[in-house]
Structure prediction request, 386 residues.
Amino acid sequence: MPVVCFVTLSRSDYASMRPVALAAMNEPALQVRLIAGGSHCLERHGRTIEQIRRDGLPVHHIAEFLNESDDSPSELAAAYGRATVEFVRIFTAQAPDLIFVIGDRWEMLAVVSAASMLQIPVVHHSGGDITQGSSDNQTRYVLTTLAHLHLVALPAHRERLLHMGEEAWRVTTTGEPALAALADYAVAVPDVHQRLGLARDEDFVLATFHPTSFDEATPERQVSVFLQGLNQVQQPIILTAPNPDASSELFLEHFKAYVAEHPNVRLFESLGSQLYYAAMAKAKFMLGNSSSGLWESASFRLPVVNIGSRQQGRVHGSNVVNCNLDAAAITQAIAEVTHPEFRVRLTGDNPYVRPDTVKLILQCLTTPYNRATLLAKRFIDPLTLL
Prediction:
């Protein structure tokens, strides 16, 4: 029975990992080992490792390598080194047959680097996507290069990996696993308004805004313009903390100062997957630059104002209105998504949804592979195919 290590290091990858991990725990052909760490261990991000346990997933190892208060580039670089050492230790002790990772965040580079040096095959989900404004874009393609089996959300993502030189048998289109249980999440929290501190059936807006790596605007300018956009919202705002990237502490400080002066805004370190999706199902619209605004939102027929370049190039549904990092542009986009006719014409169609997503991923993890064949990646030169 193969031993598969599932690794989750942030709330973003956990949203996609959760339905797969829960299904894998009940798969008799797999022996699952869950490793959690990174921002899951940080108090300023809600210590979400406790949510993982409440979800019924046993945590076999905890990987702590992030500093609670320092998110400077030099500290994150040092954390990358600590994480690599920690995962070498964990993988040496566990001796897994496969390592399963999801996403495009820098923390996963440490996981995959350690696995590569130890010659442990890696299964990676989320390759082939595009987010031009974020360093995640570069990280994603490095993860693809180091991984041995690729699970992708869309057929176009598969084509990109083939053009990168990956062998066709290694790449499978599965859809996005975070969407596998959205309907269940939405009905699992009947008291969503109460838990958000709102009156029953009160309209509210959901907002999430992360630092953008390659924006010409400074981090101070980015967060300032975003908060100017919030000034245009009359309803209560549910604001969630940014990811643990460089400048996230600066963003959080600005968020806290803004909340102190605006009683209609409530700041949450983390809502957890269930409450977050339940909030998406009830929100009037969504504002910010989160991937959830492009992936999950369409399934809820939720209008989204996507701000700036962080998600540039990513496929999305007709529910998303893109705008520049500019207060006037944000105001115009809010007016568009709040027009009565906008939501009426949304169908709920989501390009990332497949009914068999989790099944396809489990098939990949349970298929017997020759280890030597997996590890010996061949480069298929696209020039020879012309």
Remarks:
- The CA atoms of residues 357 and 363 lie 10 Å apart.
- The longest strand covers residues 31-37.
